[in-house]
Amino acid sequence: MKKIINAVDTVVTDALTGLAAAHPELRVDLDTRVVYRANAPRPGKVGLVSGGGSGHEPLHAGFVGYGMLDAACPGEIFTSPVPDQIVEATTAVGGGAGVLHIVKNYTGDVLNFEMAAELCADEGVEVARVLVDDDVAVRDSLYTAGRRGTGATLFVEKIAGALAEEGAPLAEVAAIGNEVNARSRSFGVALSSCTTPAAGKPTFELAEGEVELGIGIHGEPGRSRAPAGTARELVRVAMDALQAHLPLSGDTLVLVNGMGGTPLIELYIAFAEVDAYLREHGATAARSLVGNYVTSLDMQGFSVSVCTLTDELTRLWDAPVRTPGLRWGP
Amino acid sequence: MKKIINAVDTVVTDALTGLAAAHPELRVDLDTRVVYRANAPRPGKVGLVSGGGSGHEPLHAGFVGYGMLDAACPGEIFTSPVPDQIVEATTAVGGGAGVLHIVKNYTGDVLNFEMAAELCADEGVEVARVLVDDDVAVRDSLYTAGRRGTGATLFVEKIAGALAEEGAPLAEVAAIGNEVNARSRSFGVALSSCTTPAAGKPTFELAEGEVELGIGIHGEPGRSRAPAGTARELVRVAMDALQAHLPLSGDTLVLVNGMGGTPLIELYIAFAEVDAYLREHGATAARSLVGNYVTSLDMQGFSVSVCTLTDELTRLWDAPVRTPGLRWGP
What we know:
The first copy, chain A, is of the alpha/beta class. Chain A has 8 helices and 14 strands. At the A-B interface, helix 1, helix 6, helix 7, strand 11 and strand 14 of A face helix 1, helix 6, helix 7, strand 11 and strand 14 of B.
């Protein structure tokens, strides 16, 4: 294993130190391990808190800022944040209008966010939750009952964040987050394993010329292994899997996401194939993102996430956002 | 070799097809292989054209847009664009105020941009050039007489692009580009080789636990090989090399750049060490970028680029930019 780290047990703290130095517009509490917008809490605004294991950067801390999250709770690599951390973040960003937890569907995350929500309720902070479970690859998996939460988390954080910024009440912000999740599906393909610093060796082995179809973002097994194939073939496997769960038509929002070790030139090749597939099926990539957004350390591969848009979702997607990882508008 | 491609000889065209589909605000000419701002040429504005081998994405095509480039000419992987391509781009974006070529110092790029500039002069388009040669690792190299051009290309494109947007004349835009280059230095470290699609195997081999210090962005050899070491040790090698060429003091602009296969969490760890180093030496990372910007396909590793700032350079760096790869401001 070769990695740009100082020691296995300081990876998350060292990265947060760098995040704080690079982004003075964030407030990073290294003791409690919470990343805040510098101006949180904003009175009267619903607070948005997400979090999960580290190793998926820029998710989640890279999406803290205007129009998206108020705070993020990074756990250790591929390990849920602890309830105390989530309570700290939630109570700090509660501006009197309640707090939305955006939780990817992994057993540890679900339990710890639930426990934190109960503790926050005891302190008088109202908490609602959106559970993201967009990954159609497997029914249950190593760390999950039900579908896994992956790329659509970005869609939920962006769109719910935009609505919260407009001053919508907690119930509405939660409802639109749930709507985005219901309208979104994802599927991932791995060309290589990731290597966690703690393990020091690849989580799994793939033969030369073999890919894992339906990979999870922690290297959990997918549906099957297959010969590597062309970009077109790999994208078609992913899109057929999405299409089986989410009839594709009209305007869609598309994320072609790199797993962390895949160069951008390959992701644009994949996007060309996704775009062609959508047009063949009477749908349009009306909005898109191509890049490394929901990663799995150094894994090579990609995932496709698609959300079927409404006018309201498009409007909220287009609304201004200013975070380290996503930025547009005035 | 496992890559998300359709065929070795369609990599660049397929990626440009994806770029066009993802970014309707760009105009991508697949025949001539030029990527334009949709509204180019802008009468009275100096046009900015850059280009070079593909495989360094988002450089250069990802930096076409308001406040940066008017056009980019992507060559084949790690291969200079041809003169015809550069002529096409230059004459198309010339708005009557002349065109600046931003050229990385590699022999092929230098020759082809020179030939194109002569052809454009024959057609009455005035062309000036900024030659970027920021990489302090080696004096000459495989593809270069003199220092190589790497990460500072992004600084030159951004800052010269901002000045051109304000309506400055060609001589001033070229002068500020040259000033940025003179004030900038870079140094890279590879943890692994890249693999070009055409070769299908790594360009070079590194032993487990070994890194290449002073790597070039095409996998050209650096200064030496060394044991991998910690992030702190690797960053200190890079910063000591920079410091020997560029006395570090006052406000600096810092790019901690991933080579394409390195996850963001490791780049933030590297940035924390760069920031600490600068502070120890009485300098400040007043502005910074952390991410994959000037890549080398799937290579794992990082480079550090530093530019010593003036008030004017800071102002131009902060000016609005709207490109696929870099975006801020209104």
